[in-house]
Amino acid sequence: MLQALDIHKKFGSLGVLKGVSLQVEKGEVIAIIGPSGSGKSTLLRCLNHLETIDKGTIAVQGEFMAQAGPDGIAFYSPEKDIAAIRHKMGMVFQNFNLFPHKSVLENLVMAPMLVKQTDRLQAENSARELLKKVGLSEKADNYPFELSGGQQQRVAIARALAMDPEIMCFDEPTSALDPELTGEVLQVMKDLAQEHMTMVVVTHEIGFAREVANRVLFMDEGLVVEEGSAEDVIVNPRQERTRAFLSKVLMAR
Amino acid sequence: MDYILMLLPSMLKGLTVTLKLFSLTLLLALPLGILMGMARLSHFKPLKWFMEFYVWLFRGTPLLLQLLFMYFGLMTIGIRLEREIAAYLAFVLNYSAYLAEIFRSGIQSISPGQYEAADVLGLNRVQTMRNIVLPQVFKRVLPPIGNEVINLVKDTALIYVLAISELSRVARTHVMRDGTFTPFIIAAVFYLIMTGTVQQVFKWLESRFDYYR
Fold first, then answer.
1. What is the pLDDT of residues B159-182, one digit of tens each?
2. Best mutation site among A42, A96, A101 for testing chain B: the one with the most B CBs within 10 Å?
3. Do A56 and A23 touch, CB atoms closer than 8 A?
4. What is the pLDDT of residues A47-86, one digit of tens each?
5. Where are the domains of chain B?
6. In CATH, what class is B2-212?
7. In this structure, are residues A167 and A159 in contact, taking their beta carbons and an 8 Å threshold?
8. Looking at beta carbons, which residues of chain B come within 8 Å of A110?
């Protein structure tokens, strides 16, 4: 479904990704965990083309977004091809990034109408379906500022789903939330996983990763340090760095 | 009272000159300001540099001087503009520069997350500007633009240097001829009505945009 091979990314002289590879199969839920600054969010942003990579290959369903040349340097495909690939990816941000001047319903129908030329009636119907799915049917006509953080993030998930993506990416979706509001967002994500949505989730929620993820990647200093089933990585980590990180995170609870 | 009634026709004529300059400037400088504000943020460097130079030039010199240049200055190099045209030109160019700066800062105040959200949803640059960025910019720039518009009402008095009979010049003519202060008071009342109207309009506009935060 999604292949990322040997991704290198520098910000100035600072190497953020130093050769990261990631394979995602259809219907898989991948959790990426690791300390701040480990490059996990950057990796996700590169997959979404919010950042460009220096070296490596990114392909979705066999179509290249960027392809490595003989020396590894990434060559990006033409704009149009990249746009087509990006249509297959949905993204949920840490800070929701809802459009504050639009009602919840308008947040959901805007992109389908503008990008896919869906007519309003159809767009609104599927938007209401999605709002029902995330449990916010009653909030269709509210504005984002009238919602709690958890509700805003659920709207953001619905907004991404409105474009009917093949893969959903989540960038620390619960990190900006009060602890009592993370549950409702994680529940929506669990529901998605149960429907076999392909998901890549950058998260600090170790419990969620353990429960929902088919595979867990532990990243540190721009590299994947350990990768495997949730059971292997979280319960029986082999690497010292993974153990150190997990003990810190789990102790904090 | 009779004196005031006698003054009114000529003062109203001055007022229409003032109002014409005011509305024409606003009508042209607002869209120009938006375009220039965006140009100022362009990735195309020469355009960006040109806009920076433009803003520096027109914000950095007195409007009074710009009026004189547009009329007398251009005349010395053989371009003879009508006095009114020279006045409109100076005002539009000057106010565009100020409005461009307001729109630039407004556009820059929109968080990168808004662009990223639009980007991952597949909106192109034009769609993002029109549907996401500019609507939010308008709400934010209303107060500073209200300031500029009120300044504009009062700045119209400057075109007296081109011997155009706008409101304040008409008043001054009467004061000097009749030896009474009354025409100035009437002019002041007219200005206050104009600025008061602007203030109310902007108050209404701000309340219209109050539906979200």
1. 999 999 999 999 999 999 998 999
2. A101
3. no
4. 999 999 999 999 999 899 998 988 889 999 999 999 999 9
5. 2-212
6. mainly alpha
7. no
8. 121, 123, 131
